[in-house]
Specification:
Keywords: Membrane, Signal, Transmembrane, Transmembrane helix. The chain is 59% helix and 8% strand. It is mostly helical. The chain has a domain of 57 residues. Strand 1 and strand 2 form a beta hairpin.
Length: 102
Amino acid sequence: MAKLRGLVLAGVLGAVLFTASPASAEPVRAHHTVAVTVGHASAALVPVQATPNPGPVLDPAQTDKANTEKTRNKLVAGVVAVALLGIVIWGRRIRSKKAKSS
């Protein structure tokens, strides 16, 4: 029974780690400063306002379609994982019943 609990715990932990979405994390943005010397004055730190390069233009319809496909693939993989876990648990139960009856 302890092995069964361990298998179920490992399966649940795997499912949680599998469904975690690292894409929802927000990127960290660094602040840039430049030292400027003016005459006899000491160096002053002036923030630089660099405009980032414009990224690619994403079509919302394609993004939604890609998200839908990704979600469907994750669901299929999850169902397959649960089915395989069920087969393993069922096989171990049958094997333990045969061992007890022998």
